[in-house]
Amino acid sequence: MIDEQPTTAQTRGSETTLEVATEAAPDSTEVSTVLQQLVDRFDRPEVSHDDEQVAARLRELQRDFTRFRLRYKFAIDEITTKIAILREEFEQTHDHNPIEHVRTRLKSPESIFSKAARIGVPLVIPEIQRHIHDIAGVRLTCAFESDVYWIADMLTGQSDVTVIEVEDYIARPKPNGYRSLHLIVQVPVYLSDRTEHVEVELQIRTIAMDFWASVEHKIYYKYDGEVPTGLLDELRVAAATAHDLDARMARLRSETQKLSSPGR
Fold first, then answer.
1. CA distance linking residue 105 with residue 235, whole number of Å
2. How much is the CA Rg of the chain, to the nearest whole Å?
3. Which end of the chain has fewer CB atoms surrounding its CB within 10 Å, N or C?
4. In the annotation, is 89 catalytic?
């Protein structure tokens, strides 16, 4: 989910320069093995001379995982650059800019390990990369429901963006009322010695959908997932209200366009 630790994306007028190591990570990074070594170490009353080897392995593990996450940070940069170009084009050459807000999220190591453990994925970098698809996340909000699909088409129509998965919760809302368009896309990240194809989760929704999702997330957090039935019912009613608002605003937009069209 992108709700975790979001930050506002700087989509234009800013540049970040990073000096990083770009050597390839090893084929397998066994987090579980290292953790078990630590457990074994502290189970013994004496301090072993193996401690230095364990510490060295932990440092290596940290470097490998930092490089792994950095690929996802660069993938976010690739996507937000594409969005920034679209936003500027619409601001300069069109009457309507469909992109209202952009937020990004890069999962923390703790969150990645927690999700891997929860879904039964071995704590190995290739397996994490294969099974966890939302390490990098970008959320876009727009004013109208039709803009959601327009933005999705513009981004996924670019030749270097590959669509891996689509979940349309607008056409088919979740039982709790959640509505949004989710896409897993893959973009190339060009490093100094190789090209990595990295997955990014895109969530595209209207302002009304985003407001509902934000409130719902806060309620679930407050009740630690055990939300009273009465509140769940209220959330479903609120989701229907948000949907009605989107439909009403779309009608108002259509009427406005008719009034401003030539010959009227």
1. 25
2. 22
3. C
4. no
Average pLDDT, the chain: 83
Catalytic residue from among 78, 196, 199, 201: 201
Task: Enter the pTM of the model.
Answer: 0.77
- Sequence-distant (≥ 6) Cβ neighbours of residue 252 within 8 angstroms: none
Tens of pLDDT along 16-43? 222 222 333 333 344 545 555 555 554 5
How many Cα atoms within 13 Å fall on the side-chain side of residue 159? 0
Distance CA 168, CA 203 (A): 10
The DSSP secondary structure of 70-102, one letter per residue, reads HHHHHHHHHHHHHHHHHHHHHHHH-S-----EE
